[in-house]
C-alpha cells in the first residue's frame, strides 16, 4: 500500500486497485527501491561489449575509468546526448508523420484538409514561399516540401524551421557557436555515431552536441505545432474540464492517449458520427476524453475533457468505466494492458512501431484513417455493451478552467487592449512590475515526486509573487486538476499586481471574470508556442531571450523528451529548473558546464532543486536578477 499522499482522485483509484489486487506504477516503483546509483549519476556505460562499465565517482584508482579508458565525464556526457537524441527522435518522428499525412491529404489520398488557411499563409510567408496567385493546396504543398527538406538536405544551410522559428539574435549566437542545425535526421545519425564506442571523448564537445540535439528537437516541436494548426486549426480560448471525474458511467468512454492528433482528430470525428450507434447500444452517447498530450491537443482545439495525466493512465482504467483506450506513440505504459485485462476495457494500439502484447492492434495510416477510426469507435461501443450493468467506480472529482492559449489566441486577447501593438500591455506591466516575470511549466508527472505536489506548490509560490505561468504537457493536466486554470484561481493565488492585470485583460476580452493565472498552451510539442512567444517579447524589447525575466521548469521530469526540450531551451538561453536531477551528476565537467559555464555561453542554465518552495525561490531570484540587469 502506498502512503495516502496522492491527490484525492488518484488515491481513491489507487485504493480500488489495491482492493482488487491490481498492480500500478506506484507499486512497481516501490519494488524497484533502491534504484541504481550508477544509473542515476549517469556513470554506467553499456555502449560496448567489453562492459558494462560502471564508474563510482567517489572511488579512486583502478575503477575510475572504463575498459577503453573512458572517464565518468565521457560516459555521462555520451549518455546524456543519447537521452536527448531519444527525445528529439520522438518529436521529429511526430512532425514528419504530420508532414507526410498532410502531403497525402493534398494529393487526395488521405481524408484530411486545410483547416486553418490563415495559419497556412503565415507559415508559408515565414518560410519565404511566394503565395500570390497560388491556391491553398499549392501553397500547402510547398510548405510540406520545405518541411521534408529539413529531414534530407545536404547543403549545410540552416533548416527551414530553424530559420522560421528562431529569433535573429539566437540564430546569430548559434552560428557563432557552430550550433547551426541543417538536417534533423543527420543530427540523429551524427549523435549516435559520435557516442558509439571509440569516438568523441571530449565531454564539452559532447555537451555542445546535446545543445545541437536540442535545436534539432526544436525543429520537430515547431514543425509539429505549425502543421497541426494548419490541418486541425489554431486553438482559441474556451472552457475545459479536467480529472478522472469527466468519465461518465452511462456513456461509451473512449480515452485517447498518446500524441499525434492525426489519429485523435479522426476518432473524435467518428465518435460524433457513431453517436446514434452508441445510443442504440444502450449508452446515453459517446464520451471522448483525453489522456496525456493527446488530451492536451484535443482540449486545446475542441475543449475535449482532460481525463488523466501520464501517471493516471493506469488509474483511469482502474475505474472499470473506460471502454477503450486508444493509443498511438510515446508515453504509453505497457502496464495499461495488464490493468485493462481486469475489466472489459480494450487497449488499442494503432502504430506499426508501437505494439503491446495483449492489446488489440488496429493499424492506422493516413490512407485508411476513416476505416480504422470507424472500427475503433465501434470496438469501444461493443466494449460498452460488455460493461453494461457491471460495477464501476468513478471518483467524482473534476475541475474547470480555460484552455486554448496559442500565441495567436493570446495576441487576439491582448489586441482588445491595444490593437496596434498587442504585446505592449504585457511589456508595460512587466516593466511596471505588475507582472514580475513568467515561468513555463512543462513535462511529466513523476511518481518519485508527485506525492510532494511539487508542481502545484511551485506554481502557488510563483503566482503569489506575480509570476505568470504558462504550461504544456502533463504539468498542464496537473495544474488544470488543481483548479489553477480557472478565473477563480486568479483571485485565490495571484499576487495583487498580476491579479489586476489578469482582471483587466479578462474584462477587455469580454470574459465574465479575469483571465486565469496559468495559461494552457498545449501539448509537449507546443513548447514551440512558448518559444514563439518569448521570441516575440524579446524582439519587441530588442534583447536576447536570455535577457528576459523568465524561466522554464520541468518540475517532475520523466521522459527523454523532457531532456531534449530542456536542451533546446538551454540553447536559446533560458534558465531551466529540473527535478529529478538529470543523469549527469556523476560528471564534474557536465555539472559545471550546465550550471556554471553555460550562462556565459548561451545565457541558459540548468538548475536542480527538489524542494518546491526552494525551487520557486530560486526561480524568483533568477527573475529578479534579470529584471535588475534590464534596469526594471
Ligand atoms: O510529451 S508530459 S509524460 S505525455 S513526455 Fe509524456 Fe511527459 Fe506527459 Fe506528452 Ni511530454
Task: Give your account of this protein's structure.
Strand 5, helix 13 (292-302) and strand 6 form a beta-alpha-beta unit. With 632 residues, the chain is an alpha/beta fold. The protein has a six-stranded parallel sheet with strand order 6-5-4-7-8-9. A six-stranded parallel sheet has the order 13-12-11-14-15-16, with helices on both faces. It has a two-stranded antiparallel sheet with strand order 1-2. The protein has four domains: 8-64, no CATH class; 72-232, Substrate Binding Domain Of Dnak, Chain:A, Domain 2 (Up-down Bundle); 244-387, Rossmann fold; 406-630, Rossmann fold (3-Layer(aba) Sandwich), CATH 3.40.50. The mean pLDDT is 96.
Largest sheet: 6 strands, parallel
The N- and C-terminal alpha carbons lie at a distance of: 51 Å
Architecture of the largest domain, according to CATH?
3-Layer(aba) Sandwich
The unique ligands bound to this protein are: FE(4)-NI(1)-S(5) CLUSTER with Oxygen
**What is the chains' assembly state?**
single chain
Tell me the strand order in the biggest sheet.
Answer: 6-5-4-7-8-9
Q: Beta fraction of the residues? A: 5-15%
Name the CATH class of the largest domain: Alpha Beta
Question: Please, how many helices?
Answer: 26
Low-confidence stretches: none
Q: What is the fold-level CATH name, i.e. the topology of the largest domain?
A: Rossmann fold
Write down the domain tally: 4
Shape: globular
Radius of gyration: 24 Å
The level of helicity is 40-55%
Average pLDDT rating:
96
- How many beta-strand runs? 16
What structural class results from the helix and strand content? Answer: alpha/beta
Amino acid at each position: 500500500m502506498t502512503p495516502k499522499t496522492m491527490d484525492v482522485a488518484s488515491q481513491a483509484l489507487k485504493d480500488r486497485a489495491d482492493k482488487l489486487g491490481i498492480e500500478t506504477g506506484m507499486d512497481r516503483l516501490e519494488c524497484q527501491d533502491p534504484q541504481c546509483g550508477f544509473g542515476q549519476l549517469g556513470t554506467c556505460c553499456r555502449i560496448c561489449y567489453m562492459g558494462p562499465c560502471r564508474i563510482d565517482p567517489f572511488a579512486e584508482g583502478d575503477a575510475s575509468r572504463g575498459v577503453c579508458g573512458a572517464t565518468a565525464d565521457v560516459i555521462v556526457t555520451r549518455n546524456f546526448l543519447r537521452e536527448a537524441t531519444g527525445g528529439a527522435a520522438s518529436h521529429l518522428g511526430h512532425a514528419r508523420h504530420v508532414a507526410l499525412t498532410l502531403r497525402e491529404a493534398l494529393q487526395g489520398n488521405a481524408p484530411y484538409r486545410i483547416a486553418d488557411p490563415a495559419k497556412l499563409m503565415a507559415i508559408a510567408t515565414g518560410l519565404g514561399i511566394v503565395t500570390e496567385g497560388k491556391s491553398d493546396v499549392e501553397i500547402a504543398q510547398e510548405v510540406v516540401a520545405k518541411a521534408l527538406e529539413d529531414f534530407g538536405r545536404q547543403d549545410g544551410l540552416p533548416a527551414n524551421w530553424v530559420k522560421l522559428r528562431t529569433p535573429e539574435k539566437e540564430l546569430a549566437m548559434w552560428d557563432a557557436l557552430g550550433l547551426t542545425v541543417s538536417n534533423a535526421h543527420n543530427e540523429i545519425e551524427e549523435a549516435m555515431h559520435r557516442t558509439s564506442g571509440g569516438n568523441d571523448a571530449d565531454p564539452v564537445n559532447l555537451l555542445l552536441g546535446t545543445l545541437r540535439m536540442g535545436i534539432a528537437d526544436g525543429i520537430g516541436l515547431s514543425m509539429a505545432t505549425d502543421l497541426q494548426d494548419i490541418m486541425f486549426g489554431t486553438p482559441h480560448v474556451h472552457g475545459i474540464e479536467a480529472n478522472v471525474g469527466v468519465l461518465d458511467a452511462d456513456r461509451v468512454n473512449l480515452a485517447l492517449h498518446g500524441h499525434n492528433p492525426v489519429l485523435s482528430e479522426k476518432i473524435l470525428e467518428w465518435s460524433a458520427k457513431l453517436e446514434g450507434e452508441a445510443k442504440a447500444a444502450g449508452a446515453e452517447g459517446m464520451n471522448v476524453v483525453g489522456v496525456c498530450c493527446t488530451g492536451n491537443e484535443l482540449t486545446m482545439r475542441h475543449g475535449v475533457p482532460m481525463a488523466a495525466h501520464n501517471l493516471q493512465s493506469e488509474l483511469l482504467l482502474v475505474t472499470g468505466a473506460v471502454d477503450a483506450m486508444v493509443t498511438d506513440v510515446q508515453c504509453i505504459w505497457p502496464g495499461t494492458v495488464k490493468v485493462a485485462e481486469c475489466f472489459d476495457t480494450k487497449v488499442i494500439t494503432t502504430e506499426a512501431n508501437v505494439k503491446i502484447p495483449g492489446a488489440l492492434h488496429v493499424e492506422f495510416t493516413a490512407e485508411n484513417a476513416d476505416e480504422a477510426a470507424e472500427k475503433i469507435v465501434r470496438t469501444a461501443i461493443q466494449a460498452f455493451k460488455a460493461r453494461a450493468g457491471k460495477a464501476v467506480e468513478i471518483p467524482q472529482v473534476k475541475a474547470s478552467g480555460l484552455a486554448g492559449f496559442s500565441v495567436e489566441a493570446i495576441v487576439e486577447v491582448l489586441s482588445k487592449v491595444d490593437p496596434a501593438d498587442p504585446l505592449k500591455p504585457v511589456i508595460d506591466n512587466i516593466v511596471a512590475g505588475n507582472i514580475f516575470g513568467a515561468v513555463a511549466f512543462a513535462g511529466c508527472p513523476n511518481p518519485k515526486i508527485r506525492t510532494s505536489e511539487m508542481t502545484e506548490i511551485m506554481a502557488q509560490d510563483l503566482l503569489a509573487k506575480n509570476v505568470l505561468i504558462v504550461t504544456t504537457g502533463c504539468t498542464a493536466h496537473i495544474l488544470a486538476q488543481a483548479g489553477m486554470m480557472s478565473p477563480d484561481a486568479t483571485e485565490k493565488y495571484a499576487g495583487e499586481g498580476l491579479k489586476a492585470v489578469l482582471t483587466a485583460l479578462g474584462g477587455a476580452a469580454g470574459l465574465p471574470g479575469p483571465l486565469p493565472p496559468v495559461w494552457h498552451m498545449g501539448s509537449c510539442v507546443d513548447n514551440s508556442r512558448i518559444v514563439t512567444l518569448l521570441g516575440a517579447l524579446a524582439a519587441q524589447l530588442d534583447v536576447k531571450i536570455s535577457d528576459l525575466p523568465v524561466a522554464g521548469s520541468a518540475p517532475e521530469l520523466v521522459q527523454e523528451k523532457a531532456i531534449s526540450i530542456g536542451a533546446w531551451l538551454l540553447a536559446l538561453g533560458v534558465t531551466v529548473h529540473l527535478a529529478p536531477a538529470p543523469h549527469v551528476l556523476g560528471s564534474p565537467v557536465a555539472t559545471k558546464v550546465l550550471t556554471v559555464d553555460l550562462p556565459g555561453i548561451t545565457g541558459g542554465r540548468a538548475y536542480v532543486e527538489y524542494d518546491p518552495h526552494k525551487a520557486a525561490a530560486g526561480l524568483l531570484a533568477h527573475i529578479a536578477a534579470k529584471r535588475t540587469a534590464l534596469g526594471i
